């Protein structure tokens, strides 16, 4: 029971991961698209390297090495959650979760405008029920 209480996952910053080399952490980052993604399936299909930028205001960066092949949706992801350890000069990543842009984001904007307009007119409750789907 006690071990279950400690399974809640929190994200470390890049700065915190670098300060604790060798400690397994989860780090939320963005792909640094200004730097190349290194992947050559012919040379080594399991080796992938890229640079990540912190999600916080520090804009810290780190090189990431992932040894399990290509990461689907890497280039279009809004956010990456990296699981692994900072070692030597890079983050040795064991697992990656990608957060891709929502295909519904653009579709929701007209609904939001409708809700805002309706709430000004005073009948927001009725239109919120109609527009929430």
Short characterization:
It is built from 5 helices and 6 strands. The chain has about 130 residues and is of the alpha+beta class.
Chain-wise SSE layout:
Elements: H1 2-5, H2 14-19, E1 25-31, E2 38-39, H3 41-44, E3 48-54, E4 61-66, E5 79-87, E6 90-99, H4 105-121, H5 124-131
Parallel strand pairs: 4-6
Antiparallel strand pairs: 1-3, 1-5, 2-3, 3-4, 5-6
Using brief descriptors, characterize the structure shown.
single chain, 5 helices, 29% helix, disordered C terminus, 6 strands, 133 residues, OB fold (Dihydrolipoamide Acetyltransferase, E2P), five-stranded mixed beta barrel
Can you walk me through this structure?
The protein has about 130 residues and is of the alpha+beta class. It has 2 domains: about 1-100, Nucleic acid-binding proteins (OB fold (Dihydrolipoamide Acetyltransferase, E2P), Beta Barrel); about 100-133, no CATH class. Helices cover about 30% and strands about 30% of the residues. The chain has helices at about 1-5, 15-20, 40-45, 105-120, 125-130; strands at about 25-30, 40, 50-55, 60-65, 80-85, 90-100. Strands 1-3-4-6-5 form a 5-stranded mixed barrel. The longest helix has 17 residues, at about 105-120. The protein is globular. The two termini are about 40 Å apart.
Fourth CATH level, the homologous superfamily of the largest domain: Nucleic acid-binding proteins
SSE run: HHEEHEEEEHH
What class would the helix/strand composition place it in? alpha+beta
User: What is the helix content?
Assistant: 25-40%
Question: Which outline best applies?
Answer: globular
Q: What's the story with the biggest beta sheet?
A: 5 strands, mixed, barrel
**Strand order, largest beta sheet:** 1-3-4-6-5
Strand content: 25-35%
Counted by DSSP, the helix tally is 5
Distance between the termini: 40 Å
Which whole number gives the mean pLDDT? 80
CA gyration radius, whole angstroms: 20 Å
Q: Please name the CATH topology of the largest domain.
A: OB fold (Dihydrolipoamide Acetyltransferase, E2P)
Number of domains: 2
Report the uncertain regions. Answer: 1-7, 111-133
CATH top level of the largest domain? Mainly Beta
For the record, the CATH architecture of the largest domain stands as Beta Barrel
Annotation, overall tally of beta strands: 6
């Amino acid at each position: 029971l006690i071990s279950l209480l400690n399974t809640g996952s929190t994200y470390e910053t890049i700065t915190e991961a670098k300060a604790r080399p060798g400690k397994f952490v989860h780090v939320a980052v963005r792909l640094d698209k200004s730097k190349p993604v290194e992947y050559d399936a012919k040379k080594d299909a399991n080796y992938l390297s890229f640079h990540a930028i912190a999600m916080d205001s520090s804009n810290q960066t780190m090189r990431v090495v992932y040894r399990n092949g290509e990461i689907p949706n890497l280039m279009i992801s809004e956010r990456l959650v990296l699981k692994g350890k900072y070692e030597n000069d890079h983050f040795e990543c064991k697992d990656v979760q990608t957060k891709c842009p929502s295909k519904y984001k653009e579709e929701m904007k007209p609904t939001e405008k409708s809700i805002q307009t309706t709430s000004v007119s005073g009948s927001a409750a009725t239109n919120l029920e109609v527009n929430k789907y």
